[in-house]
Amino acid sequence: MNKIGFNILPWTAGVSSNTFPILDRLKSIGYDGIEVLIGSPEEKEYKALAAHAKSLGLEVNAVTVVGEHENPISNNREIRQKGVERLKWIIDRAHDLGSEILCGPFHSAHSVFTRTAATEQEYEWAAEALRIAGDHAQQAGIILAPEAVNRFENYLASCVDHLVHLVQLVDHPHVKAMYDTHHANIEEKNVTSSIQKIAPHLAHVHISENDRGTPGKGLVHWDEVFTALNDINYQGWYTIEAFSRADPDFANAINVWREYSDPWEIAEYGYHFIKSNLEKFEKK
């Protein structure tokens, strides 16, 4: 049974009690869960957010990134080791949240480039880090779902082909893959074939419009997306990921320079958009 989630990044990249009214309203809309960014160093806030979400009957999943000084594919061994330790810390915070899924492009540092194509050595380094992280995640009951992100943000895994290659190298039961409709809209040639290719490894899906605004009001080929996911019998989360400039530090870090849609329009329209698309297949 699919569940519908919402990443709270249109309001904040934080996990403080300031998020609680957001969670309350998302629950009232009908969401099954939320997704939060693991980045804040305040460890106690993760458990507090988890407790509030649980009181509402909301599940919590997590997303994260790693930076240049903790890059799992750096040619500097000490930096790679810091990357592994950072991933372990992040997994611990995901456990504090009660998450079953930790997703994101944490296979390598976000927006860090060498100005050359990825090497097989870099894939091997990423696989080694994810294998160790996978062992840690397995103890916490968490599935890691690394993400392919577009060529302007990443060079190791910018498309489904790259991501599948990496996950196969890792070869770990708790390291799978996610599919993000925004990045796929940029990088993939065909929606159906890309979803079929990632299907054996697929653990999580981000519903994200081409402009990062309201799903269903942009250019993504949504009929193909939902049909292909239904055809492979995908049973995981459909989680909306959209961005805004509400949190300027986060927005600046990911090159968000304007507002795409009102956050509550995204949440309200997006929920019903996903639900109506899923109901099409339930009626068949």
From TrEMBL:
GO molecular function, one term: isomerase activity
Coiled coil residues, start to end: none
Transmembrane stretches, start-end: none
Pfam families linked to this entry: AP_endonuc_2 (PF01261)
Residue span(s) of domain Xylose isomerase-like TIM barrel: 23-258
InterPro entries per record: Sugar_Epim/Isomerase (IPR050417), Xyl_isomerase-like_sf (IPR036237), Xyl_isomerase-like_TIM-brl (IPR013022)
Keyword terms, alphabetized: Isomerase
PANTHER family: 3-DEHYDRO-D-GULOSIDE 4-EPIMERASE-RELATED, ISOMERASE
Name listed for the protein in its UniProt record: Sugar phosphate isomerase/epimerase family protein
Organism: Sphingobacterium daejeonense
